[in-house]
Amino acid sequence: MNPFSLASGRAAARHAVALLGLLWAVGAAQGEVSAGTAAGTAAGATATAERRSVASHYVADAVIEAVRQATVSAQLPGQVTQYFVDAGDRVRRGQLLARIDAREADAQLAAGAAQVTQAEAQLAQARLNHERTARLVQQDFVSQAALDRAEADLKTAAAALEVARAGRTVAGRARDHAEVRAPIDGVVTRRLLEPGELAQPGRPVLELHDPLALRAVGSVPQHVLAAVLRAAQAGALAGTRVELPALGLQVAARRVTVMPATDARQLATAVRAELPAPMPAGVMPGTTAKLWLPIGQTDRLVVPPAAILLRSELTAVIVVAADGRRVLRQVRTGEHGADWIEILTGLDPGETVALDPQRGTSGARGAGTAAAR
After folding, report:
1. Is the peptide bond before 285 cis (omega within 30 degrees of 0)?
2. Is the pTM of this model over 0.70?
3. 346: left (phi over 0), alpha (psi -120 to 50) or beta
4. Other CB atoms closer than 10 Å to residue 290's CB: what's the count?
5. Burial of 187 (0-12, 13-18, 19+ CB in 10 A)
6. Integer Cα distance of 67 and 216 in angstroms
7. Tens of pLDDT, residues 305-358
8. Phi and psi for 35 in degrees, rounded to 5?
9. Which residues contact 323 (CB under 8 A, 6 or more apart)?
10. Residue closest to 86 by CA, chosen among 184, 194, 177
11. CB contact burial 68-87 (16+ within 10 A = b; e otherwise)
């Protein structure tokens, strides 16, 4: 026997076995392999594909942002000497967040206190001079002009004391600015300066946001804006949904606001949708989202969500024939609501679909039927 012929025969046999296995797997996935006549013909929950007038939506890309957020900036120059919080820490309004080198502010405060002491002494001396001059005028030892000068000196000293006290107050408030405190309740988003860096008045030090007040912000192009505004006037935007693809979550928006101005560069108008509180972990500023804005009613072919079968990249339904056979049918879906999913192709109105598609099929039709459609 020729060894090369023997080897070729074995290779051909292995390829044949592999091909048969592949064809069996494909047939099972498409419903061409029987799942058992008894199981396939057993009664199960079904629904009828029907055309319904359902809400039509415009889906806008959006980003989650905080409704209440604050950028805390320095109000006096100096080095950042210490932080008491870090990113992710929860803080309360008025809580100490960081401290800035206050030696210069302390010096100004000490100078202000010294000026107040000096002004008080000058006022006391001016008051004594005024009283002494007034007695001398009564005894005709000095003229009235001397008393007038004493009164002027007294008023000047009193005004100087007020100026010194105001300066001390300003210095004290500047000293308070060395302690950076939280203006709102929330979470530290990030630190913008590190210890040792120089803070300047107006330069941001930290960012905070309130995680209990979030909203999704998207944009609507001008050709859709008119429909969105009509829906807003009719109150239809109350049905807006916010989808969070990363979490596989959809929530109803609490309040939707269409901004009154259009961005001339993007030729789009911003739309804000406030989220309910609290939101699950993972929903934070910067998270991508989608806004489902209802803009009218449309006649669509729909089935219940339970009728949809997802297998890898295959989207299908189980069609129940008049004789009870269950056949896998590939479909293409569109929009969806709370109790419906739109069928774009692969199904006709009036056909019956199973609500338990995981049970499998019992018919001989499958991908060929879907392809024919």
Report:
1. no
2. no
3. left
4. 18
5. buried
6. 10
7. 999 999 888 999 999 998 889 999 999 998 887 788 999 999 999 999 999 888
8. -95, 10
9. none
10. 194
11. ebbebebbbebebeebebee
